[in-house]
């Protein structure tokens, strides 16, 4: 899984990101480039167009959901994982409900922790320290390109 979440686990509001952190977007691009990205319909619809050099797998309950050519549509997280099985490192990219389901099956979380709290309508589930071990923590201070302090954290399932 890959996510940017605030201290209060906020990840979005009105189907939009709450902040713009240049280094976080670069990290997302670098890590997901060339991989399958699994997401819910609302997350997919938040993009102006499919992201380049990634295979999009969209989970929706809607029948006959229309997507651009090359986008895979499935009805469950299990089907999304199955559709991504040729990729040794697919990424689950949201939203909130998909993250909740994926927390049960994922083996790694790439988290950008934004060191502030925000009003939101979508949240990342709590990370249970008895299940997940933090293996990397790189801090970044606020600067001219970043309005907030943030950290890149990696968690591996114990």
How would you portray this structure in words?
It holds the Pfam family DHFR_1. Pathway: Cofactor biosynthesis; tetrahydrofolate biosynthesis; 5,6,7,8-tetrahydrofolate from 7,8-dihydrofolate: step 1/1. It is an enzyme of class 1 (oxidoreductase). Belongs to the dihydrofolate reductase family. The structure is a single chain. 19% of the residues lie in helices and 32% in strands. With 158 residues, the chain is of the alpha/beta class. It has a single domain, classed as Dihydrofolate Reductase, subunit A (3-Layer(aba) Sandwich). The strands form 3 sheets. A 4-stranded mixed sheet has the order 1-7-10-9, with no helix packed on it. Strand 3, helix 2 and strand 4 form a beta-alpha-beta unit. The longest helix is centred in the first third of the chain and has 11 residues.
Summarize the entry for a quick read.
It is built from 4 helices and 10 strands.
Number of domains: 1
Q: Strand share of the residues?
A: 25-35%
User: In angstroms, what separates the terminal alpha carbons?
Assistant: 15 Å
Order of helices and strands: EEHEHEEHEHEEEE
Gyration radius (Cα, Å) is 15 Å
* CATH-defined architecture: 3-Layer(aba) Sandwich
Strand order of the largest sheet: 1-7-10-9
- DSSP strand tally: 10
In round numbers, the mean pLDDT is 97
Unreliable spans? none
The major sheet is characterized as: 4 strands, mixed
Helix/strand class: alpha/beta
In CATH, the homologous superfamily goes by the name: Dihydrofolate Reductase, subunit A
Shape: globular
Q: What percent of residues adopt helix (DSSP H or I)?
A: 10-25%
GO biological process, one term: dihydrofolate metabolic process
Domain DHFR: 1-157
GO molecular function: dihydrofolate reductase activity; kinase activity; NADP+ binding
Pathway: Cofactor biosynthesis; tetrahydrofolate biosynthesis; 5,6,7,8-tetrahydrofolate from 7,8-dihydrofolate: step 1/1
């Amino acid at each position: 899984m890959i996510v940017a979440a605030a201290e209060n686990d906020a990840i979005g509001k009105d189907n939009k990101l709450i902040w713009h952190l240049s280094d976080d977007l670069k990290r997302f691009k670098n890590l997901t480039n060339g991989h399958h990205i699994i997401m819910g319909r609302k997350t997919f619809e938040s993009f102006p167009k499919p992201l380049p050099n990634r295979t999009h797998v969209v989970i929706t309950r809607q029948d006959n959901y229309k997507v651009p050519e090359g986008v895979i549509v499935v009805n469950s997280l299990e089907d999304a994982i199955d559709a991504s099985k040729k990729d040794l490192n697919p990424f689950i990219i949201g939203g909130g409900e998909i993250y909740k389901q994926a927390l049960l099956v994922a083996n790694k979380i790439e988290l950008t922790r934004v060191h502030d709290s925000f009003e939101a309508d979508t949240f990342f589930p709590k990370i249970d320290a008895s299940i997940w071990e933090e293996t990397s923590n790189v801090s970044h201070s606020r600067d001219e390109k970043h309005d907030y302090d943030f950290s890149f954290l990696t968690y591996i399932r114990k």
